[in-house]
């Protein structure tokens, strides 16, 4: 917050000391710098995965592998994130955010360095030779482990840094903007780096992770646990609590999780298809290819930003935007079936991106508005894992379906989008109210305790 604004009429009439105004101004600037440092984490983690999509055909040619094998470079990264995001969230509550996010960034950078080393560099070193593919898979696995411990920890850390809901919402908005901007930037950056060599995107990952780590260590101060805050429960109690909460909200949470997973499955499957088609059928390489791939992603991100601004807390509107967005995505993909011109298909897939982009922030908001604040971290980490299931499955499934025909792939993706729209109808504006969740959870826990006492007495 600028000093001039703090020193305006409101503060002046209250006769706030100038020294205090300067402290407030310095603190505001420090918080803004800390937010920008935190925003570098999702930006870099998104780049580290998505920028490989335009490079996959070049990796296939260099290593002599199949499209399915190259798609696994995306999948192994996502699988590790699926498995470890909930674990990382729990550990960050137990041992502290910094103790999880710092080693995670180091691990992600090390994974990228292993991938770059294994690929070698013409005229400099030979790399891992015939076993290069296996080493690159191992490096991507380490990268996924690092991403699981870095990216989701940013969200609760923003909540720790601010006390007011307005500041937290603004901070989370900046984090989400960085995430979506990374998606738009990734095909362009990946294609530009691949001009140097197909290994160059891998080598950029440790450099970017080092930059993010430097920003975090110098600009972000993790606040101490607030007085009176309850310590996190033991692992067994934590799992029982999460399971109980999920049972109470099983219908709408299951629908929400499936829609999020299907949205990512469709998005990454279609990006893989478009990347393969542009390079192998139309000879597009480098930045030109990246710019074409960025078109549907730019539409998606614009729609996501606009929908996030518009929905507020209107849960009924969220439900119908999700359903309508999925229906629009299904229509856009289905329109590609009779139209074979690549430019027309890119336009149709951009329409699909518009629908998916409108749905995604509504899914996030429906989840956060429907779960009590103290329970939100565990459920959102599971939701993040479910989205990574879609990221992991999209490219290999697209590769397998493309072996039969592109029409089969497009029909399957359109059907998935239609199914997601149907699932959205299971959401209800009255479901998942935080107060109701808390009361029902307490009632169910009391019943469980009474049942156990009764069983112990019978014995």
Question: Which key phrases capture this entry?
Answer:
459 residues, mainly alpha, Growth Hormone, Chain: A, 2 domains, 17 helices, globular
Helix content: over 70%
The CATH superfamily of the largest domain bears the name MFS general substrate transporter like domains
Order of helices and strands: HHHHHHHHHHHHHHHHH
Under the CATH scheme, the architecture of the largest domain is Up-down Bundle
Distance between the termini: 65 Å
Strand content: under 5%
> In one word, what is the shape?
globular
What's the β-strand tally?
Answer: 0
Sheet with the most strands? none
Low-confidence stretches: 1-13
CATH class of the largest domain: Mainly Alpha
Remind me, CATH topology of the largest domain?
Growth Hormone, Chain: A
| Computed structural class | mainly alpha
What is the average per-residue confidence, as pLDDT, rounded to a whole number? 81
Work out the count of structural domains: 2
Structural overview:
Helix 3 runs antiparallel to helix 9. This protein has 17 helices and no strands. The longest helix is centred in the N-terminal third of the chain and has 33 residues. The protein folds into two domains: 186 residues, Growth Hormone, Chain: A (Up-down Bundle); 220 residues, Growth Hormone, Chain: A. The chain is mostly helical. The radius of gyration is 24 Å and the shape is globular. Keywords: Cell membrane, Membrane, Transmembrane, Transmembrane helix, Transport. It is found in: Cell membrane. This is Siderophore transport protein. One of its GO terms (molecular function) is transmembrane transporter activity. It is a multi-pass membrane protein.
